[in-house]
Write a structure and sequence with these properties.
It contains six helices and seven strands; from the N terminus they run βααβββαβαβαβα. The chain is of the alpha/beta class and 165 residues long. A five-stranded parallel β-sheet has the order 2-1-6-5-7, with helices on both faces. The chain has a two-stranded antiparallel sheet with strand order 3-4.
Length: 165
């Protein structure tokens, strides 16, 4: 299983996922983890990725352009292969469950899109997201923790990750 995480805080994911059972699974090649810093795709010289909502309102949104460009850099489906599923961490998404973890563990690759601020420009969500997913009926400051929770649960279903199947 190969995980791609699109985030503003790759170090948060890297530090959390390279320890304990998942760290061993990465070292042994059962799973792989690739973090992509969305800021690297900003067209702004200060690497800003936030902007005011187009329709007005409070807070800031992540701009569509850097998120879309980061996704394009990661989601390169090989000839004849199905597109990689994009999971968007959102309190409005379908609630994550053990059944969903089993289903997602059947995929070869997954892309996790971690939002921040008040969310992500809806245009890019409509374009690239295949599965909005929530880990519960509450709001967090970003999508990194939900992504790590899901990766942990999904990885347990990947053969070889746990010594006792």
């Amino acid at each position: 299983m190969k995980y791609h995480i699109l985030t503003l805080f790759p170090e948060m994911i890297e530090q959390g996922m390279h320890t304990s059972i998942l760290g061993r699974a990465i070292n042994n090649g059962y799973i792989s983890l690739e973090t992509t810093n969305i800021r690297d795709f900003s067209a702004n010289k200060f690497n800003r990725v936030d902007d005011y909502p187009y329709g007005g309102g409070a807070g800031m949104l992540m701009q569509a352009q850097p998120v879309y460009d980061a996704w394009k850099a990661v989601a390169k489906p090989a000839e004849g292969k199905k597109p990689v599923r994009v999971l968007f961490m959102s309190p409005q998404g379908k609630t994550f469950s053990q059944e969903m973890a089993k289903e997602l563990a059947q995929e070869e690759e997954l892309i996790f899109l971690c939002g921040h601020y008040e969310g992500i420009d809806e245009r890019v969500i409509e374009e690239i997201v295949t599965d909005p997913v929530s880990i519960g009926d509450y709001v967090l400051t970003g999508g990194e923790l939900p992504a790590m929770v899901m990766i942990d649960a999904i990885s347990r279903m990947v053969p070889g990750v746990l010594k006792n199947e």
